Each structure stands twice: as C-alpha cells, then as structure tokens.
Amino acid sequence: MSDRAVYQTPFYYQFLIGVLKPLYRLQVWRRSHKRDNYQQEVAQRFGKQYPPRPAITGHSNKGVIWCHAVSLGETNTVAPLLDALLASGYQIWLTNTTQTGFARGASRFADAIAQNRMSHSYVPVDTPTVIETFLTHVQPIAALFVETELWANILTKLAEHQIPSILVNGRLSASSFKSYQKIGAVSSSMMKNLALIIAQDSDSAKRFRQLGADSAQIRVAGSLKWVINTPKIDVEAIDSDNLAVDAKDASAQIPSKKNALAKKNALAKAFAIADRPVWVAASTHNGEEETALSLHQQLLSQTALANTLLIIVPRHPERFDEVAALIEKTGLTMARRSFDEAINADTQVYLADSMGEMMTWYTLANVALVGGSLVDIGGHNPVEPASVATPIIMGRHTQSCQSVVDKLAEVGALYQPNNQFYRPMTINSSNECAKSTVNHQYGTDSTDDIALIYKQLEAWLSDLPLATQAGQAGETITVQQQAVLTRQLAMIEDVIERYYPKNLGQEIL
After folding, report:
1. Domain 3-deoxy-D-manno-octulosonic-acid transferase N-terminal: where (predicted)?
2. Would residue 234 count as lying in a domain?
3. Which pick of 76, 167, 253, 380 has the fewest CB atoms within 10 Å?
C-alpha cells in the first residue's frame, strides 16, 4: 500500500466546523423535518446509522469505492463512470448532499442498490469523529469526489487511513478559485491530501496547481458531461392521449444521425405536432420561464411562426404549480403533462411537469434553450440535447460547463451571445446573410443577450433544415468525445493499483 504524507487540516477550520455542526443540524431540520426521510438523513449525516455495505460476491471482489456527488447534476455526470466501475467488479457507496441529488441517486441506481452492489446514503458531516465512524463502516479502498466538492477533514482522514482520494471531472472556475484562495491553508491541505486530480480542462488544472497541488497529481482528461446515459424512448408507448413515454434510464447509447431524426419525426407524429416548429426551455429556474414565455409571444406574433409550440420543463418539481400559474397569467393556451392533457392545435405552451422524461422533450424539440444559463446558476448540461441532434441556445451563465459549451459552439451546434468560439452553420438559404450578422454579435448586458437569443431562436425555427444541420454537428462531436470515460476510468484504476499493487482484482478489505 502507498505511504503518502498526511497534511493536517488547520486548527481554525476544525474549530469552525465544530461550532457550526449544531447549526448545520438545525438547517437540515428546517429543510427536511416535514419529509418522510428526515430521521434517516440526520442519522446518516451524523454517523448514527448506515445501510449495510455492498455485498461481496465470488466473481465481484475488487472492494468498495466511495463516490460523493453533491446534487442532481453531479450525480447525472458521474453515473456513467459508476456504471463502468460496477461493470469492472467494484462495489460502490454513493453519497449525496442535497435531497434532489439523493432522490436521483436512489432512482438512477435502483437496480444496483437492490442487488446489493451499491449502497447509498447522505454524506457525513465534516467532523473527524463522524468521518471515522463512516469510514469504519464503509471500508472504502478509494474515494471519488465529483467536480469541486471537497471537505478538508474528510480528505485528512482518508490520507491518515492511506485511502486514495481522487477528484474526478475536476472543475475550478475563476470565482471558485478566488473563494478557495481566501482559505489558503485549508485549500493547500486539501490539494496535497488528494492522490489524484482529474481535471476537465487546462484552466482548471492551472488553478488547482496555484492552490497547492503538485503537477504530478494532476491529469487533464476532458469532461464526463460528454458521456450521458441517454434514456430509451419508446415511441410506441405514447397513446393517442399523449400519455407517458418509457424514459427510464438505460445503458449509454448515442443514436446515429438517421435514428435521431427518425425519433424526432416519430415523436412529433405521436404527439400530433408533426407540422409545427417546437422548442423546449429545459431545466428552467425562477426568472427563466418569464423570459421563455416572452420570447414565445414574440415568435407567435409572426405569421410564419404562429403555430410554434413551447415546451417548458422546470428544473425543480416544487415549482411546477408556480410555473403553471405564470403561464396562465400570460393568456397563452396551456396543456399540462401531469394532467395527461393532450396537445391540441390551439395549445401554445406545454408544461412538462413530470420527472424522468427530459430526453423525450429534447428529442421532440427542433431547438433547445438549456436553463440555468439565463440566471446565474452555471448552466445545465448541453450534451443531453446535443446527443439527440437538437441545436442548443444558452445564456451567458455557463461556468459549470464552459468547456463543453465552447466545443459545441465551435462546431455551430450551440449559440451563446457572448461566446467567441461560435461558428454558425451555413447552407443555401435566403436567411443566410441575416444569420451570419446575428451570430457574430455579442451582448454587452442581459437585455442585449435576450434580444440576440431571440434572433437565433427565430432563425433556427424559421429554417428547420439549418437547425437540423446544427443539431447533427452537436451529435457528431458528442460521439467523438466519448473516450473521456475510458480515460478517467483508467486513471482511477491506476491509482488503486499503486495503492494496492498485490491485491488488484481481489477482495482488499
């Protein structure tokens, strides 16, 4: 086993965590005491009770890997990597911080949990005694942390136990970097206690080095956001009343261009909207639905786009009724998915207030506006619509997925008003000159951005062959980027082999 140095967490951090621990428990109570799983959450966060460890079988005995994914986005991002580790013979202990992340982990890995190949809990609070209890119970051979979620005491305890900790899909934005700089001693201890940092891009790698990581600890491998588990869409499962599509998770599969277009056409026919331009505002947050509805009203005012359909998919289920009321205030005709209401010829807005069907809406749409980007959330994953050949529009707030956004923009699959990499598609079209003018302008503020977004939305919906070509470019680059999963998996196994050179492939603990 490797014998790495342990870098102790500064005393002031440990003192502060100790002071904040009861306040954190109060925060958990306020957020979740009305939910059924409150007692479970508290017990797991504070080391009182955990589910059993994953079962070790004769043909699957490589040991348990602990993976921490903060919320929904990180859980979705790391899911294909966890699938690959499970397939390689490892067991997984998955932890989450947020309730949305926990719910997603429970549903996404329901089969693996039922088969005792994976265990699932909330993350322990960052105090030494709770972490010690957690590690004694789980006995992990390695720990994975997704993107930027790091806790100093946890990393110190892992180092003391000589358990390698790996930051996977590591991303450090300029704003996060400044925050970590303010606690320089704590950040330095965390960087040095990590066995490996797998960075998404060179900018993040540079910032990790500036925080105290050694160059030998860092690898640049690309973003796991390129690797998604595209749900199977059973078009035949849609009946005449537009009831549910089978959108359960399946193994990762990126359809061919022919299949993607065929699915789009089949879905449009099944929903009785084959002759209508369709766009989706997906994973929207407060403030974004108003913008989408305003854009839609502008589109409907044009004779050529008067029959356009907008599908709105709010990010959080608790906002479904709020968004429905917002749509009603506009006077636009609405149908709701949760009410099994059909899309009629006069339906102008379809509220997709359901869970697990996002890929259906991305496939159905001619253009996708990806949320979390018009307001300062960081932007949700644009690879999902790109994987089904749907062109993408995003606002300026894409710091959570900027490297992916830039690559999609460079091939013309994603439009972002302030993106210097954007290269528009050009085909023989009467609108070609106008598109070129629009796409090379940049907004100086959010108002300018919305005006430019409208022009791009109008351009694509008015020229669906152009939109199709842009979508296909996104699908092509998505396929090309799939090797990132293999690279990150190999790097993880290399670390495990260095720590356990005589036991790789055997039961370690």
Report:
1. 42-226
2. no
3. 253
Residue 313 has pLDDT above 90, yes or no: yes
Residues 320 and 176 in one domain: no
Amino acid at 410: E
* Domain shared by 371 and 436, yes or no: yes
Which CATH number is 59's domain given?
Answer: 3.40.50.11720
- Distance between start and end Cα atoms, the chain: 12
Are 460 and 490 within one domain?
no
Q: Please report the pLDDT score of residue 17 as a whole number.
A: 75
Query: What residues make up the domain containing 304?
Result: 250-480
**Tokens 């500036």 label which residue?**
210
Assess if residue 442 is contained within a domain: yes
pLDDT at 94: 98
280 bridge partner residues: 311, 368
CB 68, CB 150: distance < 8 Å:
no
| Same-domain pairing of 100 and 140 | yes
> Residue 162 in contact with residue 3, Cβ under 8 Å?
yes
Over the chain, what is the mean pLDDT? 86
pLDDT, position 264 = 83
Q: Where are the beta strands (DSSP E) in 235-380?
A: 278-284, 309-314, 334-336, 349-351, 367-370
> How distant, in Å, are the alpha carbons of 104, 111, 300, 468 from that of 313?
17, 27, 20, 22
Indicate whether 421 belongs to any domain. Answer: yes
Using DSSP, state whether 337 is helix, strand or coil: coil
> Smallest Cα–Cα separation from 312: which of 279, 340, 346, 345?
279
